[in-house]
TrEMBL record:
Family recorded in the similarity comment: Belongs to the PPR family. P subfamily.
Keywords annotated in UniProt: Repeat
Ranges: PPR repeats: 26-60, 61-95, 97-131, 132-166
Lineage: Eukaryota, Viridiplantae, Streptophyta, Embryophyta, Tracheophyta
Protein name, as recorded: PROP1-like PPR domain-containing protein
C-alpha cells in the first residue's frame, strides 16, 4: 500500500521495490502515488508518475487531473500545465471543470500571461460552461497584476450578470488589486466594492479622504472586521495597510495596525525582556511590515528619550519571501 502525506520517501521506495521485483503497479497504485506526490508538491516525481501512467494507458479521473494542474500552478510549471490540460481535453471520461480552469488561470497569473488566461476563459464560454467565482477571482488577480483596471471592472460586472454573490475572498481580491493600481483608478474599484460589501466600501472611502477623523475611521474598520470571516481578516488588514502606505497615509496605517493588534488579527509582533527586544515581521505584507517597523522604532526612540536603558540585543525576524528574506540583529552596548 502506498502511503500518503508525509511518507513520500517511503512511497517512492515501495514503488521502486515493486518495479525491481517485476511487479506491475496497478492503476490504483499509480493513482495513490500520484496523490502522494501532488500533496507536498513533489513536482518532478509527480510528473514522472503521470507520464508513466499515460504510457501505460492508465486513465486519470478529474480529481487527479486537477491535482496535477493545481500542483503545476503552485510551482509555475507552465508548459507542463498546458500538456496536462490538452490531455484532459482529449480524455473521454475526464473533461475540464471549474477547478481545472481556475488552476490554469492561476498558473497564468503567476507567470504574468494575461492573454493566455483570456484564451482559457474564451474556451470556457465557447463550451457553454459558465465561469464560477473561483475562475473570476483568478482572472481579476491576473488583470490587477497587469494593471488593467478596466478589465477588472468588466470581470466584476460579469460576476453580477451571472448572479454570483461576491464573497469575502473575492472582495479581498478587489482590495488587493487596489494596492497595485494608480490613485486615479481607485474610484473605479471603490464603486465595485460598494456593490459587493458596503462596510468595506465605507472603510476604503474614508481611507482615501485625508481629512477623515481617526476615530470614525477606526470605528468603521472595526465594524468591517467584525462582519467578515476570521480567515480573511488578516489579508484584508494587510491590504488596507498597504493601501495606506501607497497613499502616504502613515497615521492611518498605524491606526489599522493598532486595531489589528487589539482584535487579535496580529499577534506577537513585539516581545520584550531584560536582555532583548524582538520584532516579528513574518506573515505581514510589505506595507504592514514597514508600519510595524515604524512603530517599533518610534517606541525605541521614546524609550531612549525617557532615559530607559535598552537591552543589549535588538532583533528583527523578517521571515521568508519576496521582500523579507533574512534574520538580522543589531547589538547595543557590546561591553
Amino acid at each position: 500500500m502506498i502511503g500518503l502525506g508525509r511518507r513520500n520517501g517511503g512511497s517512492k521506495s515501495v514503488y521502486r521495490e515493486m518495479i525491481k521485483n517485476v511487479l506491475e503497479p496497478s492503476s490504483s497504485t499509480h493513482a495513490a502515488l500520484l496523490r502522494a506526490y501532488c500533496r507536498p508538491r513533489y513536482g518532478e516525481d509527480a510528473l514522472h508518475v503521470y507520464r508513466e501512467m499515460k504510457e501505460k494507458g492508465v486513465e486519470l479521473n478529474v480529481v487527479l487531473y486537477n491535482s496535477m494542474l493545481a500542483m503545476c500552478a503552485d510551482i509555475g510549471y507552465v508548459n507542463e500545465s498546458v500538456e496536462i490540460y490538452n490531455d484532459m481535453k482529449k480524455s473521454e471520461t475526464s473533461k475540464p471543470d471549474s477547478w481545472t480552469l481556475s488552476s490554469l488561470i492561476a498558473m497564468y497569473l503567476c507567470s504574468g500571461k494575461v492573454v493566455e488566461a483570456e484564451k482559457v476563459l474564451e474556451e470556457v464560454l465557447e463550451s457553454g460552461f459558465e465561469p464560477n467565482i473561483y475562475v473570476l477571482t483568478s482572472l481579476i488577480q491576473c488583470y490587477g497584476k497587469a494593471n488593467r483596471t478596466d478589465d477588472v471592472v468588466k470581470t466584476f460586472n460579469r460576476l453580477q450578470e451571472l448572479r454570483i454573490t461576491a464573497d469575502d475572498r473575492f472582495c479581498g481580491c478587489l482590495l488587493n488589486v487596489m494596492t497595485q493600481i494608480s490613485k486615479e483608478d481607485l474610484g473605479k474599484l471603490i464603486i465595485c466594492i460598494g456593490k459587493a460589501n458596503t462596510k468595506l466600501e465605507n472603510v476604503v472611502t474614508l481611507l482615501v479622504k485625508e481629512e477623515t477623523v481617526a476615530e470614525i475611521f477606526k470605528d468603521k474598520a472595526n465594524e468591517l472586521f467584525g462582519a467578515i470571516s476570521k480567515d480573511v481578516r488578516k489579508a484584508h488588514c494587510n491590504c488596507l495597510i498597504d493601501l495606506c502606505v501607497n497613499l502616504n497615509l502613515l497615521e492611518r496605517a498605524c491606526d489599522l495596525l493598532d486595531l489589528g493588534l487589539t482584535l487579535g488579527i496580529y499577534t506577537a509582533i513585539q516581545s520584550k525582556s531584560p536582555t532583548q527586544r524582538f520584532l516579528q515581521l513574518k506573515s505581514l505584507s510589505l506595507g504592514a511590515a514597514l508600519t510595524a517597523l515604524h512603530v517599533w522604532m518610534s517606541d525605541l526612540s521614546k524609550s531612549l528619550g525617557s532615559g530607559e536603558e535598552l537591552p543589549p540585543l535588538l532583533g528583527i525576524n523578517t521571515g521568508h519571501g519576496k521582500h523579507w528574506t533574512k534574520i538580522w540583529l543589531v547589538f547595543l552596548n557590546p561591553t
